[in-house]
Amino acid sequence: MQPQARTQIETGTRTQIRTGPGTQPQTGTHRPGAVIFVLCLAGFMAMLDVFVVNVAFPAIGDSFHSASLADLSWVLNAYTIVYAALLVPAGRFADRHGRKRAFQVGLTVFTTASLACAAAPGLWWLVAARVVQAAGAAALTTASLGLLLTVLPADRRAGAVKIWATSSSVAAALGPVVGGAVVLVSWQCVFLLNLPVGVVALVAARRLVPDLHDPRAARATSVDAVAVVALTAAIAAAALGLVKGGDWGWQGPATLTAFAVAAVAAAVFAVRTKRHPAPVIDVALLRVPSFVWANVTVLLFCTAFSALFLSVVLWMQDGAGYSAIATGLAILPGPVSVPLFAALAQRLVRRISAGTVIALGNLVFAAGALLLAACASADVHYWPQVLPGWVLTGIGIGLALPTMMAAATAALPPERAGTGSAMVNTGRQLGYVLGVAVFVAIIGTLGAAKPGAAPHTAFQHGWWFVAGVAALSAVTGLGVSRRD
């Protein structure tokens, strides 16, 4: 046998990994089902935190009653901004230094930062802890998806990616109920939930997940730190301008300065991406049409999804007067439908193109948002006004999201698995930032929180925005013509 940089020989359930010429092979137990479970468990934990914190959002506001809605939104936005900015660098770190190592480091940081969130004495301490938490989440997310794409046999990767993507939908189903129940004790307990899950995932990863290294990725040039800073500044400044524009005035100097900073930082990022030998965005991957279209579609879809999720939580608690636990139970039917229709989507892509399934899911999602807008009124009635539209959006998510993730990542080469999956998740998190920021801007501009205003009017505008973005995502989704 010719010496190879990395040779993987599978015999039964045992895997031998050669890390280079002249080295002794490492042998470890390779059980695909167990590996998928452990990696999805960590991704589930990171996404559960997002949905639980959304439900806890009003309770956090009650603790920091002097903070405005715009300031409170940074509990969500600080996490998603840093998460989005660090995903690609984290993917490069995983590719260079080992995905299992990156996964374990990310889990440790995320779990420890969760404890710091629970102990935060003030709003901005909480925001700072969320920043650290996001750094850990970026590492564990990219490493877990990268491991799925390299550790598993080729014929199991697409299915594993769909399971990985669907696990976030399960988190969406459990998050509101678990969060609503825990918030009855305190919002701090929301973050303490991560501790036992993180410890179990860390121990299981150490025992069950193989440690594969790719020397080709390890020899790559370090990622461009200037571009990372520029990307973070662009996202943060744009989000700041959107969130605070209603308070500062859309033509006020502070708002215009924020958008100017975002534009300059984005230009710096674009120039560095074009000239740096190891750009943050892997230019080679941008030549794969299905990958590009899937990423654009993920960005648009997640913008619509994050705006819708936060809006329904606030609508149920502020508009209908529901408690946190009642809100969690009210939200449950939508996410519960997601894994059911994700399974249907997996069957459909065997008969029709992935792009068609994605477009169909986005159109159903848009129809749900339009139904919510059409039924909204000053007097909120859950069963006829909220539930039908909310379930429709869940069906749309199940059809669209797992299919988008699989279409974007299934064909990635092994040496770019971490970086490519990071780019997909960067688009996903950018969408979450934009969705929350635009929704807060809409209800802030229309004065939904002011005495005497008509809250349902502002929410209707928000849901029209959601429907429009989802419809646009259906159009871009048609570009994903590849079958999985």
TrEMBL record:
<feature type="transmembrane region" description="Helical">
    <location>
        <begin position="102"/>
        <end position="125"/>
    </location>
</feature>
<keyword id="KW-1133">Transmembrane helix</keyword>
<feature type="domain" description="Major facilitator superfamily (MFS) profile">
    <location>
        <begin position="35"/>
        <end position="484"/>
    </location>
</feature>
<dbReference type="InterPro" id="IPR020846">
    <property type="entry name" value="MFS_dom"/>
</dbReference>
<dbReference type="InterPro" id="IPR036259">
    <property type="entry name" value="MFS_trans_sf"/>
</dbReference>
<feature type="transmembrane region" description="Helical">
    <location>
        <begin position="292"/>
        <end position="316"/>
    </location>
</feature>
<feature type="transmembrane region" description="Helical">
    <location>
        <begin position="389"/>
        <end position="410"/>
    </location>
</feature>
<feature type="transmembrane region" description="Helical">
    <location>
        <begin position="430"/>
        <end position="449"/>
    </location>
</feature>
<feature type="transmembrane region" description="Helical">
    <location>
        <begin position="131"/>
        <end position="151"/>
    </location>
</feature>
<keyword id="KW-0472">Membrane</keyword>
<feature type="transmembrane region" description="Helical">
    <location>
        <begin position="357"/>
        <end position="383"/>
    </location>
</feature>
<feature type="transmembrane region" description="Helical">
    <location>
        <begin position="191"/>
        <end position="209"/>
    </location>
</feature>
<feature type="transmembrane region" description="Helical">
    <location>
        <begin position="461"/>
        <end position="480"/>
    </location>
</feature>
<dbReference type="Pfam" id="PF07690">
    <property type="entry name" value="MFS_1"/>
</dbReference>
<feature type="transmembrane region" description="Helical">
    <location>
        <begin position="322"/>
        <end position="345"/>
    </location>
</feature>
<feature type="transmembrane region" description="Helical">
    <location>
        <begin position="248"/>
        <end position="271"/>
    </location>
</feature>
<feature type="compositionally biased region" description="Low complexity">
    <location>
        <begin position="15"/>
        <end position="28"/>
    </location>
</feature>
<keyword id="KW-0812">Transmembrane</keyword>
<protein>
    <submittedName>
        <fullName>MFS transporter</fullName>
    </submittedName>
</protein>
<dbReference type="InterPro" id="IPR011701">
    <property type="entry name" value="MFS"/>
</dbReference>
<feature type="transmembrane region" description="Helical">
    <location>
        <begin position="221"/>
        <end position="242"/>
    </location>
</feature>
<feature type="transmembrane region" description="Helical">
    <location>
        <begin position="163"/>
        <end position="185"/>
    </location>
</feature>
<feature type="transmembrane region" description="Helical">
    <location>
        <begin position="72"/>
        <end position="90"/>
    </location>
</feature>
<feature type="region of interest" description="Disordered">
    <location>
        <begin position="1"/>
        <end position="28"/>
    </location>
</feature>
<feature type="transmembrane region" description="Helical">
    <location>
        <begin position="34"/>
        <end position="60"/>
    </location>
</feature>
<feature type="compositionally biased region" description="Polar residues">
    <location>
        <begin position="1"/>
        <end position="14"/>
    </location>
</feature>
